[in-house]
Amino acid sequence: MIKEKRAVWGENHNESKERNFMDFKLSEEQELLLESIRTFVSQNFPESYWKECDESQRVPYEFLKAYADAGFTMLGAPEELGGTPIDFVTRALVKIELGKLGVPVFAVASSDIMLHLVHEVGTPEQIERCVTSLKDGRAMMALLATEPQAGSDASAIATTYTRKNGKVYLNGHKTFATNSNEAEQAVVIARNSDTSDPKKIFTAWFINPKAPGVKIENLDKVGQHCIKTCEVYLEDVEIEEKDMFGQEGNGFVQLMKGFETERLFMGALALGPAIGAFEDAARYATQRIQFKQRIGEFQLIQEKLVYMKIKIENMYNMVMKTAWMLDNGISIRGIAEYNKLYCVQSAFEVIDDAMQIFGGIGYTNDLRISRLWRDARFYRIGGGTDQIQIMVAARQILKNFSK
Amino acid sequence: MNIIACYKIVPEEQDIVVRPDRSLSFDKAEWKIGQYDLPAVEAGMNIVETAGGKLSALSVGPKTVENSKLKKGILSRGPEELFLVADDALTNADTHQTADTLAKAVQRIGDFDLVLCGEGSGDFYAQQVGAQLGELLGVPVLNAVSKITAEGGKVIVERTLESEVEVLEVALPAVISVTTDINKPRIPGMKEILAAGKKPVTTWNLSEIGSNDLNRTTEVRSTLAPQQTDRKRTVLEGDSDEVVGKLYEFLRKEL
User: Fold this and answer.
1) How many CA atoms lie within 13 A of A385 on its CB side?
2) Which of A110, A183, B108, B224 suits a disulfide with A179, CB 3.0-4.6 Å?
3) Nearest to A371 by CA among A110, A105, A104, A108
4) Could you report the predicted ipTM of this complex, rounded to two decimals?
C-alpha cells in the first residue's frame, strides 16, 4: 500500500521516455512551469513585499493564498488529493526557482514535504484536514517533535500520552515547533507512559493547536521571519484514539521516512537564495567602482565569484541527481545527507561571500542580501544539524565497508 | 461563439544583439509569444468561459512559430486548438502580408464569430494588422477595446478614449484589437501545461492556404538601433553666474 502511494508521488512527466539519463536539459514542460513561477512572483510579489513581511515578522498570507489559488501549492501531490503529480526533479526545480526570486521558500513552499508523509500514514480525515488547509493557503500542520532536552537526540523525548477513561491525554513541553500558532492541526510525538519497550514507545498524535490545554509562545528568531516557530506547552490535552497518526509505536520510524525527502528538498531550498545572492553580487561587481575600476576587476573579488559559482554548480548537480535517484526508485540513503550537508553549508558560504562583495551596504537591511544571509543560517540547524548529517552519513560509510 | 485569437512570435528583447553597424541580430534570441497578444487570448477565454463556445489560437510567421515549446506555451493559456501558417517566406513580412495570411488562414479554419488581436506586435508594434485583417475579411473592425461583453449574437465593447469611454454594440462576425488593460492574462499552471501538449495543432504553409502571391506593398530596407554617442563627461563646478553661463553655452551648442 505504502509503496503504491510512493509511486504516484514520483510520477514522471518527461515527454520522451527514451531520453538519455545524462541529459541535463530541462523539458519544455519544466521550462514553461518555471516561466509561470517567474511571472507569478515578479508580477505580484516583488522584493518590497518580502522586505515588509521580514521586517514586521509576519506570515505572507497574500502570497500563500495566491500560490494556492494558482494551484502551485499542490504541485507534486497526487491527483486523488487534488494535486498535479510531477517528479521530484521538477519539484526541486520549482523550489530553486522560487528561492532565486527572493521568495522565502522554507516559509511558504515546504509543506508538501510533510504532505507526502500524511498521505502515506494518515487517516482519510487527517489527510482531508491537511489538504483543505493547504488549498486555502494556510499552514498545513505543525510538527511538535523537538523538546528542550530532546533536540538532535529525539529519543530523549519526555512528552507523554496516557490513556484514561477511553480518552488519551498529552502532557509535555515542545519547542522549535514550526507553524504552531498558524496551523489548524499539529502532529505531536509522545512517549507511551505505560510501556518501556523502546520499539513501541513513541507514537504520533494529531491535535488541534487551539484545543484546551495547549499554550503557545512565539520564539524570536535571527531569521526565517515569515514563518512562526514556537514553544508549545501541553497540559492534559484531550484527544481520542482516532487521532493517532500512523501506527502505535511507529512515531519515529514513519517520521524518518519523511526525513529523506526533506533532506533532498532542504538542499533545494538552500540553493535558490544562494543563486539569487550570487547574481546580485556578480551584477554589483560590474557596477561598483573603487580605485577607479569596477571591483570585479580585482582578482580577490574574481576569486570569490568563481568559487561561489562552482559551489552553485555542485549544489545544483547534487540536488538534481538526488531528485533523479528518487524519481528512479534508487535509494538515497547516505546521499540525502551529503546533499543536505553540502548544500546548506555551501549556500551559506555563497551568501556570506555575496555580502562581502557588497561591503558596507551588504550589512544594511536595505538589500535583500541581509535577509537571505539570516535565513540561510537556519538550514545548517533545521532539519537535522550539520553534525547530525555527518553522523548519519558516516555511519552509512562505515557500514558499507565493514566486513 | 467561435473565437480565434491571433498572436505573433517575437524575439526576447534582452537577447537582441546590436551589431557594430547598428543592425540587429536575432541569432541568439529566444523566441516568445508577443506580450501584447496575451490579453487577446485571455479576452477570448473570458468570453468562452462566460458565454460558451470555442477558442482557437492562430499565428503566422517563419518556421519559428512551429517551436514546440511555444505551441505548448500558447495552448497552456486556454485555447482548445491551434492553427499555424509556418513558412519562411513570411520572414520580415510586412503588416499587409501578415494580415493577408491571417485572413486566408481564418477563412480556411471556417466559421468564426470573433477574431481577437493584441493592440500591436511585441516587436515592431505597427498596430496595423488587426485593422487590415477586418478589412480583408470584410467584417466590422475595432481597435483600442478595453472591455468585451458577449450578448446574444453580438458583443458590447468599450473603447477607452482620451476623455471618454465609448460603448458600442458590434454585430458579429467582427475583428477586435484589445488593449493591454482589458485583463491580466492568466498564468498557466502545471495541469494546463501538461494538457497543452495533447491539444490539436494544424500547420499549413502558404500554398496550402492559397497564398502564393507575395505581393509586398512595403519592404523593410533596414532596422537600425539608435546611434549611441559617448558621454563627454564634462564637469562644471561651482554655482556662479559664469559657470551657469558656461553650462548654457554647452547645452546650446549641443542642441
Assistant:
1) 8
2) A183
3) A104
4) 0.84
